Amino acid sequence: MRKWINAALLSAFVNLGCTPAAPDPAVPAPPAPPAPPVATHAAERAKATNFTLDHGALVLPAPIAFETDGTAPVAESEASLHFVVDYLEAKPDITLMRVEVHTDNDGANNDELSEKRAMAVARWLVSHGVKCQRIAPVGFGATKPIAGSMTHQTPEEKAQNRRVLFVNAALRGRSIGGMPIDGGGHIAGDTCN
Question: Which domains occur in the chain, in start order?
Answer without folding.
Answer: 49-187 (3.30.1330.60)
